[in-house]
């Protein structure tokens, strides 16, 4: 497949910046234009005719992620804050140092007791030790670290849940969802919350929250027996619906997520993962040869699609001059590879790193 025909930005840029923002496809733009033209011409009738979009999206998310309790939220931050606001304040949180601010900040400022674990070569051992010492009731973390690209393996997450079933496992999937197949029901997670604008290529303003039955049993218990609204258009909504999905849902944004999920599903999540991992492993080996990565970063079994390199500012400016799109994050420069990237993209990057262009 010629992805340059689908994603015009690839025609003039070496796009290694999906971790910052996914890119827009021509088919999605065409759908969005059609959506708004219909709204322009139909007014209120348009909303009636588009009522199935959100339910179609729920069914698609259930199919792809094998989940039952699905809430449509505009981004990770909204979903996670809504979740935290519904928890008892006695929960004790385990966090990872330098995790995504929208994950760490609300835990710290809402008054929960917490401790943090260093992210290094011994991360998994650090987590187990912290669980044994601090005895948290909740562990909130990003599946993939936005700065370093460090990824917790799915097997390790399952092991935590099997060993410590009482701990609520809450994950930010924004740098993860869209890169690999994933079965929420079998994952051990109690919450997977994701924005859609990165690896899901859905534009801004859409995302989702998946919850386990165990976690649902702890959320907004003060509202369970309270009377729900009786307005006809709210009939059938639960107290959690009223918390996670207050007000009207945007058919443009959530329709965009539905459209992109269909595209990614037709491309094949297994094929996407294979393509991503082959290119990223090749990139890591090349970076290691140039002294830009430690050997242990090339040998980890569980790898993400994000790689951070310690580059001097002069070299970063050369990358910008070569129209190679990447991001400064933490103390490094972050490169992220998705299925539409090629070995030619990697070679262009290596040529700049080697001073050849």
Tell me what the structure shows:
This protein has 357 residues and is α/β, with parallel strands linked by helices. The chain has two domains: 3-24 and 268-353, Aspartate Aminotransferase, domain 1 (Alpha-Beta Complex); 29-266, Type I PLP-dependent aspartate aminotransferase-like (Major domain) (Aspartate Aminotransferase, domain 2). It contains 16 helices and twelve strands. It has helices at residues 3-6, 26-42, 44-49, 52-65, 76-85, 101-109, 123-134, 154-163, 184-187, 213-216, 239-244, 251-267, 269-289, 295-299, 313-321, 343-353, and strands at 14-15, 69-73, 92-96, 113-117, 138-142, 168-172, 191-195, 207-211, 306-309, 324-325, 327-329, 332-336. The strands form three sheets. The protein has a seven-stranded mixed beta sheet with strand order 2-8-7-6-5-3-4, sandwiched between helices. Helix 2 runs antiparallel to helix 12 (251-267) and helix 5 (76-85) packs parallel to helix 6 (101-109). It is globular. The protein starts with a helix and ends with a helix. The mean pLDDT is 94.
Keywords:
Aspartate Aminotransferase, domain 1, alpha/beta, Aspartate Aminotransferase, domain 2, 16 helices, 357 residues, 12 strands, single chain, three-stranded antiparallel β-sheet
Could you outline the blueprint of secondary structure elements for this entry?
Elements: H1 3-6, E1 14-15, H2 26-42, H3 44-49, H4 52-65, E2 69-73, H5 76-85, E3 92-96, H6 101-109, E4 113-117, H7 123-134, E5 138-142, H8 154-163, E6 168-172, H9 184-187, E7 191-195, E8 207-211, H10 213-216, H11 239-244, H12 251-267, H13 269-289, H14 295-299, E9 306-309, H15 313-321, E10 324-325, E11 327-329, E12 332-336, H16 343-353
Parallel strand pairs: 1-10, 3-4, 3-5, 5-6, 6-7
Antiparallel strand pairs: 2-8, 7-8, 9-12, 11-12
């Amino acid at each position: 497949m010629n992805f340059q025909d689908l994603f015009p930005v690839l025609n003039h840029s070496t796009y290694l910046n999906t971790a910052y923002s996914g890119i827009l496809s021509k088919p999605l733009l065409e759908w969005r234009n059609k959506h708004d033209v219909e709204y322009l011409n139909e007014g209120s009738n348009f909303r009636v005719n588009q009522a199935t979009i959100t339910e179609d999206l729920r069914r698609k998310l259930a199919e792809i992620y094998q989940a039952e309790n699905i809430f449509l939220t505009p981004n990770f931050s909204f979903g996670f804050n809504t979740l935290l606001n519904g928890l008892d304040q006695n929960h004790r949180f385990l966090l990872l140092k330098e995790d995504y601010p929208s994950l760490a900040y609300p835990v710290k400022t809402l008054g929960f007791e917490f401790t943090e674990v260093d992210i290094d070569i011994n991360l998994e051992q650090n987590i187990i030790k912290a669980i044994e010492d601090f005895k948290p009731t909740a562990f909130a973390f990003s599946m993939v670290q936005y700065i370093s690209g460090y990824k917790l393996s799915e097997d390790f997450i399952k092991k935590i849940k099997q060993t410590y079933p009482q701990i609520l496992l809450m994950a930010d999937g924004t740098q993860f969802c869209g890169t690999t197949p994933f079965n929420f029901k079998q994952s051990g997670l109690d919450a997977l919350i994701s924005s859609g604008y990165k690896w899901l290529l859905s534009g801004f303003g859409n995302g989702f929250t998946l919850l386990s039955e165990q976690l649902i049993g702890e959320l907004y218990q003060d509202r369970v027996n309270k009377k729900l609204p009786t307005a006809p258009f709210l009939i059938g909504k639960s107290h959690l619906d009223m918390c996670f999905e207050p007000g009207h849902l945007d058919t443009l944004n959530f329709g965009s997520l539905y459209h992109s999920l269909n595209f990614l599903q037709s491309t094949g999540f297994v094929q996407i993962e294979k393509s991503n991992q082959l290119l990223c492993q090749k990139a890591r080996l090349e970076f290691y040869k140039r002294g830009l990565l430690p050997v242990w970063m090339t040998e980890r079994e569980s790898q993400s699609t994000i790689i951070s390199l310690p580059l001097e500012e002069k070299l970063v400016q050369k990358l910008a001059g070569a129209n190679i799109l990447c991001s400064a994050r933490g103390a490094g420069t972050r490169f992220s590879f998705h299925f539409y990237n090629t070995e030619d993209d990697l070679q262009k990057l290596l040529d700049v790193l080697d001073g050849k262009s």
